Amino acid sequence: AKKTAYKYIYLDYESTEGPKQDSSLIKNGAFYFKGVPVYGTHASIQLKDAGTADPDDGNQFDFMIEPANIKIHVDGNFNESRIDGSQINNDFRELKRVLKPAELARTKWYERYDQFKMTANPDSNEVNKFSIEYQKVQREEADLAVGYIGKHPGSFASLIALGGFYRRLTLTQIKDLWDSLNDPLKQTSLGKEFRKQIDRMNAVQIGK
After folding, report:
1. Which pLDDT tens digit goes with each residue over 137-188?
2. Phi, psi (5° rounding) for residue 18?
3. For the packed helices 156-165 and 171-180, what is the interaxial angle rounded to 10 degrees?
């Protein structure tokens, strides 16, 4: 870990017994935690004196947790730490890489759109063009996510991606992608919740 004046580091996570916070003494630049987390839930480590740390002050690192020997390497800002030994976080890095082209396209779109809004009399035809272009970026991003899910049926990142992009998909697409996921993913708490969401959407579709 980076050299720090803090003596303790805190880990917040969802254990098999419920929400939990553990602390560890930082000794010779290293810290250790041991526990039984709930697979695929959010966790964070913080450097703080007392109370709740501010995530924007560089003293918090958020990640997904799983039962594994995970190593967190801290160099520079704490919230830019590097994590090893976690398949879930490796998968999220890969998903982020896959979605990067759409993220860059959206950033460029906003830059151009912000400049356009500063004009004295925005042309309605141009507004419509921007709208169509943005919808195209959204579709392309959804296509990238669908491609990732199809190639990684056992990845927890695929389940997260499906939950994040399903509003841009048809019910048939959602069902097909859900069916393609591995059973262990479907049996996670998040998987069970998403199954309920599909059932609700299906009930609405039938009721039309």
Report:
1. 999 999 999 999 999 999 999 999 999 999 999 999 999 999 999 998 999 8
2. 115, -175
3. 170
